[in-house]
Design brief:
Number of helices: 14
Largest sheet: 7 strands, antiparallel
Number of strands: 9
Structural class: alpha+beta
Distance between the termini: 139 Å
């Protein structure tokens, strides 16, 4: 009887174990184990709840089978394609414009000798602006330069450094500008006169321009006004590769009273910078300067000249050589001008001499507003900063009806030289 009870208990325990597995109830399984240990009959598992009639399993219909096998086939097809088709690398382009890509490159790797020319020119003119401003501030320390940094929504920007009403300078401006923009078709057609590589069939072209412009108007009429501008321009394809490019620039001296040794020193220093690269540059660019800085409606030059060039591209020399030439010319500015300024800035002067300076400045204004291509281009560029463009104008000027210099005077000699340019070196 004991063995029969044991067999009965074992059978019941196994039956209970199977039931507990089918119902997946840990609680019921524990109860079965306790009953087996106590040699008693385990409790029956509770009856499973009946599902509502709405949730009863339904026999699959033909339509549900079609949907199931269609989805299964599509899933297999998609998985096969994902496994066998090569994955094309996705080129990351966080910046959508040339200006944004250039900013990213400057932040990540800086500007090096292998950087695009536009970034190298931008870096160079900013360095020279700081060096020139420091040197001028040392001559007029009581009146600091006002520095304004500005940006353009289209890309780029600049820094304008302007001093007004100083002891040495009545007005002095040293500006850098970096411009990203788009040339409309009329501008492209105009530029094709000197750059045949430009495509005349396109409606617009992306362009980049960077330059340093400087104009100094000393207070003393015996100290000459001086102008300088060096610039780089390129049109670009969508990926930022230059389509066409060129350098331009120059510097010229505009005295109210002529001192031959000043003119000779200025021209000789500029000529030395040119001769380092090409001995034909100085005579060629000196003539170009005399022709360009001409107040045509007055039939006289703006000053005693210097050098001027534009549109220097690969038809002249490669970009590296031309960039080196521009660098040497810009670095020659302080040696060409500061010795003149130091000699003349404390020279005594009369009211009549100051009036003559104001009349000559009037001629300066006429040229800049009527004939200067740089002023015209700047004012017609969308988003242009007008204050920076007109920085070149003197703080004061004068126009006097039918003024004629006294015969045999220094003023008359000045006018004769302006009507017949001189070869100073």
């Amino acid at each position: 009887m004991s063995s029969r009870l044991a067999r009965s208990s074992t059978t019941a325990s196994l039956r209970c174990l199977g039931q507990s597995q089918r119902t997946a109830s840990r609680y019921q399984f524990r109860e079965c184990r306790r009953a087996f240990a106590d040699n008693r009959t385990p409790p029956d598992p509770p009856a499973q709840k009946r599902l509502p009639s709405s949730r009863k399993q339904q026999t699959p219909t033909a339509w549900s089978r079609i949907r199931y096998y269609s989805l299964l086939g599509f899933t297999i097809y998609l998985g096969y394609n994902m496994w066998t088709e090569p994955i094309e690398p996705v080129e990351r382009n966080d910046a959508s414009t040339i200006a944004e890509r250039d900013d990213l490159q400057k932040r990540e790797s800086g500007v090096t000798a292998s950087s695009p020319m536009r970034l190298r020119m931008e870096s160079f003119i900013k360095e020279e602006q700081s060096r020139i401003v420091d040197a001028l501030n040392a001559l007029d320390p009581a009146t600091p330069f006002r520095t304004d940094t500005w940006s353009r929504p289209e890309g780029g920007g600049g820094t304008s450094c302007v001093l007004q009403d100083g002891a040495v300078f009545e007005k002095a401006g040293v500006n850098t500008s970096v411009v990203y923009g788009t040339l409309p078709r009329p501008a492209i057609e105009k530029m094709r006169v000197n750059h045949k590589a430009l495509d005349p069939s396109v409606e617009q072209l992306a362009f980049f321009a960077a330059g340093l412009s400087l104009v100094l108007h000393p207070r003393n009429p015996h100290a000459p006004t001086v102008h300088l501008n060096y610039r780089y321009f390129e049109t670009d394809t969508d990926d930022g590769t230059p389509h066409a490019w060129w350098f331009g620039g120059g510097t010229d001296l505009t005295p109210s009273y002529l001192y031959d040794d000043d003119a000779i020193h200025f021209h000789r220093t500029v000529k030395d910078a040119c001769d380092k690269h090409d001995r034909d540059y100085y005579p060629r660019f000196k003539r170009w300067c005399d022709d360009y800085f001409s107040v045509k409606h007055r039939a006289e030059s703006r000053g005693v000249g210097g050098i001027f060039f534009d549109d220097l591209d690969d038809s002249d020399k490669d970009p590296e050589n031309l960039f080196a030439f521009v660098q040497d010319c810009l670095r020659a500015f302080l040696p060409s001008y500061l010795p003149i300024l130091r000699r003349r800035m404390d020279t005594p002067f009369s009211d009549a001499e100051k009036d003559w300076q104001q009349l000559r400045r009037g001629r300066y204004v006429e040229f800049n507003l009527v004939h200067d291509r740089g002023t015209s281009f700047g004012l017609n560029t969308p988003g242009a900063r007008v204050e920076s463009i007109l920085m070149s104008l003197p703080l004061t000027a004068k126009w006097q009806y039918m003024h004629e210099p006294v015969k045999g005077s220094r003023e008359e000699r000045m006018v004769k030289v302006l009507k017949e340019p001189v070869d100073w070196v």
